[in-house]
Queue: 2 jobs
Job 1
Amino acid sequence: MEKTKTGKQKPAYGMASNCAFMISRAWRDAKSVLLICAGLIVCTVAASLLELFVTPMILDAVGRGVSPGELTVLIAQFALGLVCVYSFQAYLNANTLFGRVCVRRMLAVEQNLLECCTAYPHIEDPDYLKRLAEAGRAHSTNNDAGEAVWNTLTSLTSNLVSFAVYLLLLSQAGPAISLLTAALAAAGYFAGERIRSWRYRHREEEGRLRRMSDRIVYQSQSPKLAKDVRIFGLGPWLLQLYDKYTQMFEDFCVKAQRRYLWADLLDVALALLRNGAAYGWLIALALRGELSPAQFVLYFSAVGGFAQWVTGIFTDLGALHRQSLDLSTLREFMAAPEPFRFEDGAPLAVKPGHLYAIELRDVSYRYPSAKADTLSHVSLAIRPGEKLAVVGKNGAGKTTLIKLLCGLLDPTEGLVLLDGEDIRQYNRRDYYKLFSAVFQQFAPLPGTVAENVAQGGDVDRERMWDCLERAGVADQVRTLPQGENTHLGRQLYLDGVELSGGQMQKLMLARALYKNGPIVVLDEPTAALDPIAESKLYQKYHELTRDATSVYISHRLASTRFCDRVLLIENGGIAEEGTHDSLLELGGRYAYLFGIQRKYYAGSADLKGVADHE
Ligand code: ADP
C-alpha cells in the first residue's frame, strides 16, 4: 500500500481494477460464475418489477370493468411470471457456490505457491509474514472477499438497474418526491454506516482477540505440547487464559452490538420521516384528483422500493470497498518483487562429475531485526571436493554461514561465488539443485517413506534402498508395517507411523543422498542420533560425501578429524582454521573446547567407548 499525504495507507489497486481482476479470474477459472451473476441480476430486477406492477394493474383492470375471465387471465399471467422468476432464481442460487469456490481456491493456491517458492529471507521476515496473513484474508473462509464479492456485484448491479427504473417511474409523480426519498435514504445509510463501521475500523483488535483465544485452543490440543501439559499440569492455566481471552472477545462483541442498536434506531427514525413525507405528498396528489387509485398504489409501493434500492446501492458500495481493500492487499502481495532472481536469472545446469568450488568473499550478514552483524567480513574459499567442517558455540553463526553458502540468504555485504561467478546472477532454483542438505529442523511431508526419500511420487526403488542402506536406516524401514510404503505421521493417516528423532534424521540423510547433489551440506546431522549411530556416520563420512564438495557442522569436535579442514567460528568471524590435529597442536580455543568435551566423555562410563574412539 502507498501512503497518502495524511499518512494513511492507500491501496495500490482501486475498486474498479479489483472488480475487473475478479471478473478476469472468473473468465479464466469458472465462466459459470459470470453467467449465474447475470442470471440473478435479471431475475431480481424482473421479480421487483412484477411485484411492483401486480396490484396497480389488477386495480386498473377492475377499474376498467374487465370481465372475470380476463381478470383471472391477468392474475394468472402475473402469478406464472413470478413463479418462473422465483424458481429460476432459486435454481441459480443453489448453483452459485461451485464456480465461486473454484475462483477463490485458485487465488489461495496461487498465494500458497508464491509462499512456498518465495525467497527464503521472506520466511524469516516478520513484515512479510504479516503481509502474508493479511493477503490470506481475501480468500479465507471467514472473510472471503474472494467469494462474497460476487454477491456484492450481483446485488449492486440489480440495485442500480432497479433504481434507474424506479427513478423513471417516480419522476412522473414529480421529481421532488424522488429527490426527497433518495436524499433521506442516503442520509439514513451514511449515519447508520458511520456507527456500524466501528467494527470494521476495529477489525485488527477483533482479529487479535480472536487469535489469542484460538491460539490457546490450538496449544491445548497440540500433540507437541501434550506431554508438557500433562507433566507440568498446565491444564488449569490454559483454561484460565482461555477464559480471560474469550471474556475480552465477548466484551468487544457487546461494545459492537451496542453501536448496532443505535444504528438500527436511527434507521427506523429516518425511514419514518422519509415515508411519512413521501406518502403525505402522494395522498395530497390523490385528494386533488391528480392520481388514479392504480397510480396511487403504484407510486405508494415505488416509494418504499426506491428507498430500498438507494440504501442497497450504498450498502453494496460499502461492502465492495471493504472487499476491494482485501483484494488489493492480496494483489499487492502477489505483485511484490522477489529479492532473488528466479526464472529471470541465468540458467545453471548441474554438470555431472564436476566438483564445485564455493567462495565467500568478504561476506557480512546482519538479520533484518538485529543490531549487529552475525558474520562480519568473512572470507572463505572451499576447494572443489574439499570436506570442510565448521564448529563453534551455539549462536556463533554456523547455520547462518550455511544459509549464505546455500543461497538461502544473500550477504548484506560481500559476495558468494560458485566457481568464481557471483551466484546472484543465476536462477536461484537452479542453484539449489546443486545442494544435498540435511538441516537441523526437519519434518516429513505427508506421504510414504519412499516418497519422502525420493522427494515425490516418482521413486527409483533401487536407488532409494541404496540410500536407506548408506544412511543406516534400511533395517528400520524394513520392519515398518508396510515397509517403504508406510505413511509417515499420524496427523493425516490412521495407519501412519511416528519415527523417532534419530530415525527421522537418518531418513533425511537418505533423502539428501538420493538427491545426489554435488555439494553436500550437513548441519548437525547427528544431533538426534545415539552414540553408536553417530560413530558409524563419522566412519562412513567420506563414503557419503564421495564425489562432492561438503560442509559439515558439528558440535562434536572429534568428528572433524574426518574432514580436510576445520573452521572455528567465533565473534562473527573465523577464529581458527586448520586440520583437527594442527588445531590441537596450536593449543588455542579449538584445543581448549576439545579438551572439555574429551573430559566429559571420559568421565562417563557409558560413553567411554566413544571417548576412546575419539
Ligand atoms: P549457530 O548455528 O552457530 O548456533 P546461528 O547461525 O543459528 O548460530 O545464529 C547466529 C546468531 O544469529 C544468533 O545470535 C541467532 O540468535 C541470530 N539469528 C539466527 N536466525 C535469526 C533470525 N532469523 N533473525 C534474527 N537473528 C537470528
Job 2
Amino acid sequence: MSAERELSRAASKKSWLEAANDPASDFPIQNLPFGIFSDKRNAARRVGVAIGDAIVDLAALAAAGQLALPAGGAQHFSQPVLNGFIALGREAWRSVRLHLSTLLDAACATLRDDAQLRSRVLVAQADATLHLPLDIPGYTDFYSSKEHATNVGAMFRDPSKALLPNWSEMPIGYNGRASSVVASGTPIRRPMGQLLPPGAARPVFGACRKLDIELETAFVIGRGNALGEPIACSDAEDHIFGMVLLNDWSARDIQQWEYVPLGPFNAKSFATTISPWIVTLDALEPFRVAQPVQDPPPLAYLRHTGAHAFDISLEARLTPHRADRPVSPSPTTTITRTNFKQLYWTMAQQLAHHTVSGCNTRVGDLMGSGTISGATPDSFGSLLELTWNGARPVVLASGGTRGFLEDGDELTLTGWCQGEGYRVGFGTCTGMILPARG
Ligand code: CA
C-alpha cells in the first residue's frame, strides 16, 4: 500500500500523546508538519515535527537510532533550515511522516513506554522557540482571489471595470522580496515612505497611515525546475513540499501612490510573516476539493483535470495592546473568516504559469496565494476591503474601531482543515505593529 493511501486511511487514528487527540488541536497524528525549533536545553536550531502540545526532535530521534534515512540523509535533521531535508525528495518526506505516524500511534510501545527516550526526543512547545523554517531563495506573490481583485480594482480604479481583462486569463503575480520574510512572532515596524495627500500635487515623506494585512497562504517548492524547463500544470503538485499561512503586510497609502506602472514595491517589501510549521500536501490530501469553475476556459498550458483546491478555513484576529484602550470584555476580535478553496487560480496553475516562460524555481521558494477574500463583506482578507478603504471601520470587541492597524495592534492568522473529530491546523501566524522609526 502506498504511503499516501496509508496516511489518508488514518482518519480515525489516535496517539498515545493525549494532547494530540484533542479535537481542537492543530497538530493531531494526521498532520505531522515540519518546522525548525530550538529550546531551553539546546539552543541549536534543528528539525522538529509538531504533535499535540509537543515537538518531536528529529535530530535527537535519529541520534537515538529511531529514525533512519538512506545515504546520510539524517544529517539534515541537525540543520538550521529545512532546505536540505526537503531536497531529499518526496519519498524521504513520506517515509519520515509514515515512520512518525507509527511511532506516535496509540498502539506503538517504542516511544510510549520508554520514559528515557521520550525525555530525549520530545520537547514541550511551550519551552521551544520556532524559527523561520527555510532559507527562501525567492518569494513570489500571486493575486488569485477574484473577489479580492474585484474589490481592489473597484476601489483603486473603476468599479465598472474592476477586473482587468488579463486577470481571467492568467494567475497574475509579481516577484516579491524574500529577504524580509520573517517567522511568526517577529514584530513589524510601521514603514516610512512616500505618500500623496488627497488633492496634493506632490508627495510627502512620512509614516504609513494605512497599514494593512493580507490574509494569504503560501506553498513551498519541494522540487525545483531547471532554467528553460517549464513545469507542466499536471505535474505541478509534485513540486510542492507543503503550505503555510502568510500575512503580506501592506502599506496602502504608499501602494496607491507607487504601484503604477510596475506594481507594489516599498508598500510590500518591508515585511511578510509566515507560520512556522509547514503542512505537507500529504496531510492536506483528505481535504482536496474542486476549484471554482473557470470562465473563460484557461489556455491549454493552464489546464488540469480533477480537483486542485483544498478546504482550509482561515481567520484573522486583531488584539490591541495600547495601554489607553480597555481590555475587557474581550481583547481579541475575529475580523474575518474565509476559505482557501474559493481561490480562482490553483497552486498548480500558479506554478505552471510562473515557469512557462522558462523561469526556474528552487527548493524553499515561497509562493503566496494572494489575499483570500470571500464573497461576503465579513469574509474579505484585508482591512482595505473590510473597511472599504477606511470608510466603514471595523468595530472591536474591546471597544473602539479600526480603519487600518494602529501601533501596538497584534494580528494573528489561523487556518485549519476540519476532519471528523480532528483538524489539520497550521498553528498561528502573528505579528505586532511597532511605531515607525520616524
Ligand atoms: Ca499579497
